[in-house]
Every structure is written in C-alpha cells, then in structure tokens.
Amino acid sequence: MHRFTAPVRTSALRHNRLALAILLAASAPAALAQQVGDDAEDEARRMDTVTVTAEQIARQALGSSIITVDDIERRPPANDLSELIRTMPGVNLTGNSASGQYGNNRQIDIRGMGPENTLILVDGRPISSRNSVRMGRSGERNTRGDTNWVPADAVERIEVLRGPAAARYGSGASGGVVNIVTKKPTGDFGGSVTAYANAPEHSEEGASRRVGFNLSGPLADALSFRLYGNVARTEADDISLNADTPGGQGDDVIVPPAGREGVRNRDIDGLLRWDANDDHVVELQAGFSRQGNIYAGDRAVSSNGTELLEQLAESGAETNIMYRRSASLTHRGSYAWGSSRLSLANEDTDNKRLNEGLAGGPEGSINTDAVFSTSNLRSWRLDGEANINLDAGVEQVVTVGFEYRDERLDDPFSVTQSADGGDGVPGLDDRSGRNDMTTEAVFVEDNIYATERLILTPGLRFDHSDKFGGNWSPSLNVSYDLTDTWMLKGGIARAYKAPNLYQSNPGYLYYTRGNGCPYNFPNLGGGCYIQGSADLDPETSINKEIGVAYDDDRGLTASLTYFDNDYRDKIVTGLEPQGVNGATQIFAWENAPEASVRGVEGSLNLPLDGNGGRTLKWTNNLTWMLDNENEETGQPLSIIPEYTLNTGLDWQATDDLDLLLTGTFYGDQEPPTLSIGGAPLEGDALEERDAYNVWNLGVGYTVSAAWRLGAGVNNIFDERLFREANNTSQGAATYNEPGRLYYVSLTARF
Prior knowledge:
Blueprint: E1 3-5, H1 10-15, H2 17-34, H3 39-44, H4 46-50, E2 51-53, H5 54-58, E3 64-68, H6 69-74, H7 82-85, E4 91-94, E5 107-110, E6 118-122, E7 125-126, E8 155-162, E9 176-182, E10 190-200, E11 208-218, E12 223-234, E13 262-277, E14 280-294, H8 307-314, E15 320-335, E16 338-354, E17 372-391, E18 395-410, E19 434-449, E20 454-465, E21 469-481, E22 486-497, E23 509-511, E24 528-531, E25 539-551, E26 557-573, E27 579-581, E28 584-609, E29 616-630, E30 643-652, E31 657-666, E32 692-704, E33 707-714, E34 741-749
Parallel strand pairs: 6-9, 24-28
Antiparallel strand pairs: 1-2, 3-8, 4-5, 6-7, 8-9, 10-11, 10-34, 11-12, 12-13, 13-14, 14-15, 15-16, 16-17, 17-18, 18-19, 19-20, 20-21, 21-22, 22-25, 23-24, 25-26, 26-28, 27-28, 28-29, 29-30, 30-31, 31-32, 32-33, 33-34
C-alpha cells in the first residue's frame, strides 16, 4: 500500500471536513487496536496511526468508499466479499462482455469498465489469480474473480477507489481499485471465531456454511503476529433450477442453463511483525488458499449440454480447483522528512481444470475424456516509494515510487488445439504454452495544499513492458472548498491495461467449432479459430469526473459526480479472417477503435436520531449509467442495470441491539442486438430484464463483550429471477437472482 506521512496542516484539514472524516474512519480500527498495547508498543506502531494511504489522500477525489468492520459484521457475506463491494456507488456485478456466457460468475465492475479493468489488491498488493484462466472469444473467463481469497472475518476494511485517482496503479485499474485490508497484530493476545450459516427457502438454491478465526498478539517485546484461517462451503444450485426457462425446455435439452456453481474454500495466512524501533517496521507474510468449485452445469455456448455435464452436476463434482500461494516481505520507515515503504512479493497460482472444449468440443464445455490439466501463473513484484514532506512556500507531500513485476504463465493445454497440423496458420511453427511479461514502472504524485481551500494532486506514471513498450499515465485531481460545507472536486487521468498473457501468445489457438464464426464469414465446415497476437496495443482510457460534495457538523453528507470515460483500443476478437486453412478460418485478437462509458454517481446520508445519526441513520447511493457501448458496433460492453440504488436504514435500538434494513433497486437491463459473431439477434434474444428490487433485514445482538449473535433475511419479498440460456439468445436474462434466504452468525471474541 502506498503510504506517506501527512504534513501537520490543521487549518487545511479543518476546511476539508470530508477528507478528514474519511481519514479518521479509515484509521479508527488501527487506533482501537493500539489502545490494548503498552506504551512501548504504542510508540512502535506510531506509523500505523500517523501515516495514511495514498488512496486516502486521493479520496479528496469523489470516487472513493470504505467498507468498515462494522459494515461486514452487520451485513455478513455468505462467502465472497463481492456481495458487500457491489453495494458501493459506481459498482455492479457483471461479466466481461455482453455475451452472458458465464452469467452467474459475475465479478466486480466499477463504472461500467468491466471486471478486467478492476484491480483487486490485498494489503496494497495486486491479486492476479484469475489471469491463470483461459479467455474465450467473447472476452470471458470462466472464473469467480479475485475477491474471495480473504475471508470476511480477516478484513479490517475494504477501500474502493474509482475514476481518475485509480490511474496511478498502472495496468488493470482503468475502472478502479478494490483494496482489501486485513487485520493487523494488536498489543495483547486475542482473537475471534465466527460461524455463519444460511438456509435458502427454495431447496434448489445452494446454501452456505463457513467458520473462520483470527488471532493476533505479541511474541516478544518487539515481535508480534497475526494468523487467520477459514473453512467455507457454498453448495451449487440444483441442475433443475432453470429448467422452466425457454433455454431449459425441449426434447434435446439434457442440461438446462446452469445456476450458480458452488465453492469450497480453505484459507490460512500468517504475518510476523518486527518493530525494530520507533521508526522502522518489518513484516513477513505467507498464505495458502484453495478454492474448488462445485459444478452446476455451466458451459459457454452448448445449448443442450451433454450426459457428462449432467453427471458432473448431479454428483457435486469439482471441475476446477485453484491453489494460491502468496508471500511478501515489507519494510516501512518513518523519518524527519517523511516515510518510505519497500516490498517484495510473490504470488503463485495453480489452476487445475477438467479440459474444456478449447481442444475440440463446444466452446467452454468439458471434454468427454474428463482429464484435468493445470496452468501455472507466477508473479514476482518489487515495489517501493518515498513520501516527502515539503514546505517550499506551499505545503505539499511528494510521493515518488517504482514497481518491477515479472509474470510467467505456463499452460500446456492452451496450445494443444491444432488446425490440420497448423499448415498455413502463421505463428504456429514453434508453439509454447509459456508466455511471460516484465513491466517496470516509475511514478510521482504531488499533493499540493495550494491555499486554505484548494488542494491539487498532479501525478505521472510511466510503465514499460518488454512486450508492448512504454505507456504514460498522467493525472490531475482537484479539491476546492467552496464553503465550510460545500466542496467542488474533479479529476482527469489517462489509464491503460496491457493485453493478457493468453491474448498476446501467438501459439494460443482457441477453437470455437461453428458457434464462434462471424456472421459475414460463416462456418466452412471446419469451424473457426481465434489466435493470440503479439501485435496488440494496450487498452487505454481517458477518465474524467467532476462533482460536488456536502458535509456538515450534524453528520449530513451528500455528493453528486459525473464521470466520462473515453475507452480506446479495447481488445476484442476480430470479425475479419486472418487466413483460411482448408475448411477452417483463422481470426485474431485485435483492438476496437473506441467505446464510451458515462454516468452519474450520487450519495445521501441522513442522521435521523442521535449525535450524528449514532442511533438512527439513513444511507443511500445511486449509480446511473448514461452510456456503455462500443461506438463502432453500438453494442453494450456488458449487461449492466440502467441504474442501481442502494438504500439502508441503520438503527442502534439499544447499546446491545442493532437492526439494518437494506434495499437495492436495479433498473432495466438491455441485451446486445448482435451475437458474438455479429449476427443480428431477434425474438427472445432482444428481451430486456425489467427493473426489480431486493430487500434485506439483519439483526445483531451483543450478548456480552465476548459474544455477538447475528441473524437476518435476504430477499425478504422473494424476488427471484432466472437465467434463460447460455449465451446471447437469452436476452438480458443472464444470471439468477436467488430467492428468500435466512442466515445466522455467531462470533466469540477472546
């Protein structure tokens, strides 16, 4: 995590109350943890309270949110943290295209830029395990994403950063950044154990169970530790769930459109912290996680399914298992001039899957031999920064830093597909499932307190890839206090994303049979192939936002933001053949000229009773998408609601009893009008998904300092929606909205 010591500037922060409130909210858990330590430990951990993350200063931009420990406790996710992250402004769950091919494996999408443009961090370190999953011709990966590697009980807070302020993080942050911050060691030995279970009202929908623990404390005068673990299981939806939909009927249908697959989680992670002295801290972290799916019959384009898929779904088989190993060594220092951080991190993912149709069957379907293959993705990352306090006439904090990343992918199965021996297909003479990329980056950012009311944050990042050359990412964020309560804020930045290690490998040949052949170049009898390309350009975007924010002494806050992203060079599968080999046609990944993403975000938080709403408060946020389409084809980038409104009524009824009523309103969702291959769609394939809403109620009771009980009902009014097919023939009905569900949780602290 990028950290720096904020200069002592009471007058400036007094006028910038929103920034101050966010800073205090973010640092509160660390401050509480320090109260349990002795004076020596308090001083040794001084950096954890007086330093703030660069994201927190960047939150002077409007596009920022924090999910706290209390939020997680009052609204516990069944398993994946995306259930909470999706409730932030500007955030939805979508696929990476409008195809709906893996509709129930939706991931975090910030401001409509797609999951692949959302960078997931854990304690400031990028998580890239999903990049070990092969990408199909629609741009989809059959993956749950990277938000489920940290169990809910281990999270201290989740920081969501949207828009221009996220550009400083380099490739993959065009939409925004989600930083999952884990709990740190405390001064006294202590911890917690949490058990959670839910029970869907409809038996064909999967239930969840999980147990997690978190321990921390001192080992010696200057040495402390933190250890967390988790065991969780979410059952897959029954194979019959979507049988009554149009795609689930017919004599030839063996497997209806799949519901949500299940997941088995095993997580363990440890951290040792050495407070060498008052100004220097060293942390050593290591972790291991296993995620195995429980198959629900999912496949990309096969409409009818096969008996093998039916057998796998009915037996609760694991068809893919991901093993993730991580380790890091971090030093943080505090000096008279500022602070520094230096980190070395390794991430190693084994993605073990039953071989899919890549090598001859329907795209994305499991092959009849039911044999596993494994891809390995390994990443080394060395990065650091110095944060320098300056007062050269104007108070400012200058952050300078660097990053070196080496990524290596080895997927032997990705090059097993042949095209009549490869004759006439360029680049297939010397094929390898191995591909790698090295990236070096340097960046500088200056937080300038120009006046009592004006804060300027210019930044510049330069990335150089050994595959795709250099990329400049300039940015400018501005915050101006119009009055003591009103603030005007804006920003502009250039962001980018490098092609992934499948798209850029010329040896990667993806076979789509006839389903992936473009409309203007129909199947010649041998199907169509999509070949990786080393000649791709990185995707780029110019991200802009402007808005106002209000914050008064009573706890009333509000904001309204307009964002506009010009998205260029999005990587898509070309619709013009690069060559013909007998009865087959060869297509390649290429850059689309331009896309447009525009929308409005708003928030309104009202204290209704108690000091600043401590007893009763009403919170709201709204995202309204104005534009989200490929300007060349007129097609949506993903299927996303026209608007998303999250509302919540939080009542602290007594010192021990709290209640939370939340609702989410989703606007109409429009499907594409063209198939993946460019053919005009008609009939049911053009049907929209109408607006709907889901309401939840949670109750928490603190039995004692050692025990807390929680219970609740999700989807109170049982608003169920069904997935109607496996591809664009379903219209916008691309995913299941599960029905009413009851849950209970119990936490023991010691």
